[in-house]
Design brief:
The protein has about 525 residues and is α+β, with helices and mostly antiparallel strands. It folds into four domains: about 60 residues, SH3 type barrels (Roll), CATH 2.30.30.40; about 80 residues, SH3 Domains (SH3 type barrels, Roll); about 60 residues, SH3 Domains (SH3 type barrels); about 190 residues, 3-Layer(aba) Sandwich (Aminopeptidase), CATH 3.40.630.40. Helices cover about 25% and strands about 35% of the residues. The chain is elongated, with a radius of gyration of 33 Å. The N and C termini lie far apart (about 120 Å).
Length: about 525
C-alpha cells in the first residue's frame, strides 16, 4: 500500500510538470511582428549569442518575421529559414514611423558616426555641435543617420531632434551638382595600418596602390561605402570608407601642424615600411639628409623618399628643420656665468603609473625627482636658459619620447634626475652616469659640483647603458642622487634642504661646463 501511494504522488508531480513547465530567466517567450535590418550586413546565428555559429546573413533593408525573443536576440524567419539575429541591428515598423521626417542635431563637438551601433565599430566621420543629419531609424540607444554622404550610427544621448528633414541626395545630378554635394566632405584620413586603393568601388577590382595609417587625401566623390580619393595630381582610386575618417577639413588644414621636413641625425638610420620598429626596412638615410614630411603618426613621421615612395622614420632619430638650423647656427654670444641662448632639457625620472623605486620608508622616487627638477629649473631660468621639462606633473612619459624631446628642442644639455635603490641596504651615495664620450665631460662637471654640495658618499662618474643616454644625440647625463633603499640616507634625501643643495650642485656644474666651452 505504501508503494502504491508513493507511485501515485510521483505520477501527480509529473503530470503537473508537464502542464506547467518550469520557467527560468533564459526561457524563450513567443513574440510576433516584423523587423527591418538596419545594419549593413547582419549575421544570422544558430543560437542567441555571439558565440553561436553563423548560418547566413541579412542585408540592410530586408525584413524578417519574429518567431521569439531571448534577451537582446531575436529568432526570425526569412524565406522559410530560421535563425537568431541581434535586436540592436534591427528596427520595428513602429520605430521607423517614429523617426520619419526627423532631423538629428548633434549636441557636442566630435561626435563619432560609426559603421555599426557599437562603440568598437569603425568611425566613418564626425559631427560637430549643431550639425544636422537625416534620421533613418533607431536601434536601441543608437540612431542611424545620413550625414554628408555617409550612412552610420550615433549615440542617442548626444543627439536632439528637429522636426524638419534634410534634403535628400538626388540619385541623378549634373557634374556640377555632384561637386557641390561632395564639397561638404573634403578629406579622408586612413586609420588602419595599410589600406588597398582600388581602380573601382568594388572589392573585386584591381589594387593599384596601398596607403598607410595617418595619410590624408582629398575626396573626389563617394559611392555607397566607397570613397574616391586623389593620390597624386594624375592618380586617383577608391578605398573602403570604414577604414578611414571623413572630414570637412581640407588636406592642407588637417596637415597644417605637420613640419615641412625633418633632418636625419645619424648615418644608416632605418626608414621603415610601417610606424613600428618591427616592420621591414624600406631604405636607409644618413646624417644631414632632409626628408619631406607627409603625416605624423604617434612617435613616427611618414616621409617622402627621393624615389617618390613613402616610409616611416622614428622621431627620436631626427630633428625638425628649425631645431637643426638652430644647432648649426653660430653659438649665441653670452657672458661667463650665464646661460643665455642655451636650451637645457630636465628629465624628472618616472611618473604616473611608473613610480620608480620605493624607499624603506615608502618614499616614491617619482615625487622626489620632480621636486628636485623644479628647483633646478628655477636656477637655470634665472641664469637665462630656456628650460624644457619632459614632464611637469605626475604623468607617465615614454623614455623614447623624452629623448625625442631632447632632439626636437636641440638641447645643449639633457639632465635626467633619479634616486637609486638596491637590495643591499648598506650601499649609499650619489653617481653620475654617461654613455657616449661626448657626454662624459658634462657628467664630470656635474659630479664634481655635487660632491661639493652634498654630504653623501661620492660614487664617481660611471658609464651607464640607459636608453635616455644611449639614444641621445645631445650631451646627456643621468644622476642618481642617493639610495632610497638605505634607511638613514632616505631620511636625508626626503628633506627640502637636500633637494636644494642637490639642485644647486647640478646648476653650478652646468654653469662651469658651459663656461669651459666659452674658453675653448
Amino acid at each position: 500500500m505504501k508503494h502504491k501511494g508513493l507511485l501515485a504522488i510521483i505520477s501527480f508531480i509529473l503530470i503537473i510538470a508537464a502542464i506547467f513547465p518550469l520557467l527560468d530567466k533564459n526561457h524563450v517567450f513567443a513574440d510576433t511582428g516584423t523587423v527591418e535590418i538596419t545594419g549593413t550586413t547582419v549575421n544570422v546565428r544558430s543560437g542567441p549569442g555571439l558565440s553561436y555559429s553563423v548560418t547566413g546573413d541579412l542585408e540592410q533593408g530586408q525584413t524578417a518575421s519574429v518567431v521569439s525573443k531571448q534577451g537582446d536576440w531575436l529568432e526570425v524567419r526569412v524565406d522559410g529559414q530560421e535563425g537568431w539575429i541581434a535586436s540592436w541591428l534591427t528596427t520595428t515598423s513602429g520605430d521607423a514611423e517614429k523617426t520619419t521626417g526627423q532631423t538629428a542635431v548633434s549636441s557636442v563637438n566630435g561626435l563619432n558616426v560609426r559603421s555599426q551601433p557599437d562603440l568598437s565599430a569603425a568611425v566613418l566621420t564626425k559631427m560637430n555641435a549643431g550639425d544636422r543629419a537625416e534620421v533613418v531609424s533607431t536601434a536601441g540607444e543608437w540612431i542611424e543617420i545620413n550625414f554628408r554622404n555617409s550612412r552610420g550610427f550615433v549615440s542617442k544621448q548626444y543627439i536632439s531632434f528637429a522636426e524638419e528633414t534634410v534634403a535628400p541626395i538626388e540619385t541623378e545630378s549634373t557634374e556640377e551638382e555632384k561637386k557641390t554635394a561632395i564639397s561638404k566632405v573634403s578629406s579622408f584620413e586612413v586609420v588602419v595600418n595599410a589600406l588597398n586603393v582600388r581602380s573601382k568601388p568594388d572589392l573585386s577590382s584591381k589594387i593599384q596602390d596601398t596607403v598607410q595609417k595617418g595619410q590624408v587625401f582629398p575626396v573626389l566623390s563617394m559611392a555607397g561605402n566607397w570613397v574616391e580619393i586623389e593620390l597624386t595630381k594624375d592618380k586617383i582610386g577608391w578605398v573602403y570608407a570604414f577604414h578611414g575618417q571623413l572630414s570637412d577639413q581640407t588636406v592642407e588644414t588637417v596637415q597644417s601642424d605637420i613640419n615641412e621636413s625633418v633632418v636625419i641625425l645619424t648615418d644608416g638610420t632605418n626608414l621603415r615600411t610601417a610606424a613600428t620598429t618591427s616592420s621591414e626596412v624600406a631604405s636607409r638615410a644618413n646624417a644631414g639628409d632632409k626628408l619631406a614630411v607627409l603625416a605624423k603618426q604617434d612617435d613616427w613621421y611618414q616621409v617622402t623618399l627621393p624615389d617618390g615612395k613613402t616610409a616611416f622614420v622614428a622621431e627620436w632619430v631626427v630633428s625638425t628643420e628649425d631645431a637643426f638650423a638652430k644647432q648649426q647656427s653660430e653659438t649665441t654670444v653670452r657672458k661667463k656665468g650665464t646661460l643665455n641662448g642655451l636650451t637645457i632639457v630636465l628629465d624628472p625620472g618616472h611618473g604616473g603609473n611608473d613610480g620608480g623605486t620605493v624607499g624603506v620608508r615608502k618614499t616614491q622616487e617619482k615625487e622626489l625627482t620632480l621636486k628636485t627638477a623644479e628647483i633646478l629649473s628655477h636656477h637655470l631660468n634665472a641664469a637665462g636658459a630656456e628650460v624644457v621639462m619632459t614632464r611637469q606633473s605626475d604623468t607617465y612619459v615614454d623614455l623614447r619620447t623624452r629623448v625625442s624631446g631632447s632632439h626636437q628642442a636641440g638641447a645643449d644639455a639633457f639632465i635626467s634626475i633619479h634616486y637609486d635603490a638596491t637590495d643591499d641596504s648598506s650601499i649609499s651615495g650619489f653617481t653620475s652616469y654617461y654613455q657616449h664620450e661626448y657626454q662624459k665631460e658634462l657628467a664630470e662637471y656635474l659630479n664634481s659640483e655635487l660632491g661639493k654640495k652634498l654630504t653623501l658618499k661620492d660614487r664617481g662618474v660611471q658609464q651607464g647603458n640607459y636608453l635616455v643616454l644611449r639614444e641621445n644625440k645631445q650631451p646627456a647625463v643621468l644622476v642618481e642622487l642617493g639610495f632610497l633603499s638605505n634607511f638613514n640616507e632616505e631620511r636625508v634625501l626626503t628633506s627640502k634642504q637636500f633637494r636644494e643643495q642637490a639642485a644647486l650642485g647640478l646648476y653650478t656644474g652646468i654653469i662651469n661646463y658651459f663656461d669651459a666651452k666659452l674658453a675653448e
